[in-house]
Amino acid sequence: MDRPLMVLGDQMHFIGSLELHNSSFPSGHTMAAFVLAGVVTLVIRNNRLSAGLFCLALLVGVSRIAVGAHWPMDVAAGAALGWFSAWAGWKLAAHWHGATTITGQRLLAGLFLLFALMLFWLDTDYPQALGLQILIAISATLAILTYSWQVWRKSGV
After folding, report:
1. Where are the transmembrane segments (predicted)?
2. pLDDT digits (tens, 9 = 90+) for 30-83
């Protein structure tokens, strides 16, 4: 289905890039927010933190409707897929024992470093967020390099 801007046209005030003419289903921002909230909830198991993260993820979804980028069904689907993805990843991680080996840790570190470095070149079409994007990329790169150094020292290689 077309995004609200394409259907409602001049009847709404759209906030953001006008290049959002592709399909709107599901809301990727909402899905990402619910994946993060779900993973933290499943790992930390703190009711107050979980409730707070759920409220923040819900606000992300509502904001996607408010800015005219998504329909309520897009947001609901993004939330459901996000929660399911968090649960599925958590279940898979519980049964994968590769992270306990040096080879598995190196593999994960290499993948994480690749993703962190990709953030430097990711074009999000949001120039206002470029500073935050670079800060996240630098932080993630430094974190994984620190972790990699610890794994390297532990392995004695």
Report:
1. 27-44, 51-69, 75-94, 106-122, 128-149
2. 888 899 899 888 888 888 888 888 889 989 888 887 777 777 888 898 999 999
pLDDT at 122 (0 to 100): 83
- pLDDT at position 10, please? 62
92 shares a domain with 27: yes
Q: How many domains does the chain have?
A: 2
Q: What is the pLDDT of residue 135?
A: 92
Query: In the chain, what is the straight-line distance between the N-terminal and C-terminal CA atoms, in Å?
Result: 54
Token pair 């459901």 in the structure block, residue: 80
Nearest in space to 102 (alpha carbons), one of 142, 145, 43, 157: 157
CB pairs under 8 A, 24+ apart, for 112-116?
112/140, 112/144, 112/147, 113/141, 113/144, 113/145, 113/148, 115/140, 116/140, 116/141, 116/143, 116/144
Tokens of 80: 């459901």
Question: What DSSP character marks residue 81?
Answer: H
Which range marks the domain in which residue 157 is found?
97-157
User: Helix-strand-coil percent breakdown of the chain, rounded to 5?
Assistant: 75, 0, 25
